[in-house]
Amino acid sequence: MPTPRRVINAKGPATVLGGARASAPVIDAVTAAMRDSVHIPELQGHVGAEVAKLLGAESAFVTGCAAAGMSIAVAAAVGGDDLAQVTSLPKPSHPRTEVVIQKGHMIIVGGCNADQVIRLGGGTPVEVGTAADCTDFQLAAAIGPNTAAGLFVDGERARGSGMLNLRDFARLCHDHGVPVIVDAAGSTAVAEFLRDGADLVIVSAHKWLRGPTAGIVAGRADLVHAAYLHSEFGVGRPMKAGKEGVAGVLAAVRAAEAGDDSARAQTERAVAANIVDQLAGLAGLTVREVPTEHESTAVTTVRIDVDPALANIQAWQLADATEAMDPSVALYDYEAAQGYLLIDPGFLDDGDDEIIAAAIRQVHERAQAEPFDIAEAPAPRFATLVERVQNWRTTGS
Ligand SMILES: *Cc1c(COP(=O)(O)O)cnc(C)c1O
Prior knowledge:
The protein is α/β, with parallel strands linked by helices. It folds into 2 domains: 7-12 and 262-393, Alpha-Beta Complex (Aspartate Aminotransferase, domain 1); 38-258, Aspartate Aminotransferase, domain 2.
């Protein structure tokens, strides 16, 4: 049976690539947890207390992923800690189910749509504003007696300049007694979101926390408690984290908060510098280090600008071609339609730089000999992902 290809991950913690590459302490904690039985509520209580303290929140617990945490947070806002509601959501017995969300925040969260995540938790999405703009009077007008929560999405694709910021969004919600849930999946800065007005903050453990596949729900103690009930007996039950996930999250948060990542920073700098060196002088490629501006903890980033007229290939075609190789080289291609790619060194080790540079040189050489169609328009990003999953079949014997 062919094994799945190894991925050299210069893209970052995409869930479809398996999320983060975990550090040794996280792997050790996960392994140790797998050996034993434990009372899960006790484990969640111990881990939640320490994780909350380290992240600067009143309380916290661990769930299956950030998207799961969002549904569970919505369930907590809709159903509270009433066990009759906990055991009947997503079909509540009262009409107070509305979740206000800026229309520009209605994005794909991980893989599914934000509105699905809301509905799974028993919420009814109420979109405010237009795709690119939202104002305080529109939000105020959307809040009413049936509003259960406000959901604020901090994703990179939801940061349009026309959106209300979290402070304004939260102030308006709080004026009407409505709690605010923040999807901060790609972040680690829980305390900042709480300071800006979040009541519950959801982070992904397998993104820049470098933990196992899991999510953290952190914030106001009463809401976290209600959310925990929904995670054990309600809609969150099919989304639970196992003991290994809970234990791994604690190790990951401890490591992140200890903050000594000088060895990692050194590797990132060395790997980035070597890639820039090795890709110098290729026709149509401008390769340089730039400050990290996308959602990442990496200390530097390599940017590759592609001039198709000289390189005989477009940026997105280059990324597709390296990803199709074995090992698969995944570049940060979210901006590929704008003509550039990034290399995020956050999950790269010494030696990965050689593989990445060789893959890019090889594709470039192929394009010089046999030009790609530089007039071909890129497929929408989501369509590419969907096609891959649509074509999924079991492989091997
Ligand atoms: C990745 C991401 C999610 C989903 O995180 P998971 O932990 O994989 O469920 C949700 N929202 C945003 C903004 C994300 O970037």
